[in-house]
Amino acid sequence: MIRFDEVSKRYPGGHEALKQVSFELEKGEMAFLTGRSGAGKSTLLKLIMLTEALNQGQILVGGRNINRLPSRQIPYYRRRIGVVFQDHQLLFDRSVFDNVMLPLQIEGFDKHEAARRVRAALDKVGLLDKEKLNPITLSGGEQQRVGIARAVVNRPQILLADEPTGNLDPELAAEIMVLFEQFNQVGVCMLIASHDLSLITRLKHRMLTLDLGRLIKDEHQPSRARSP
Ligand code: ADP
Ligand code: ADP
Question: What is the value of pTM for the model shown?
Answer without folding.
Answer: 0.90
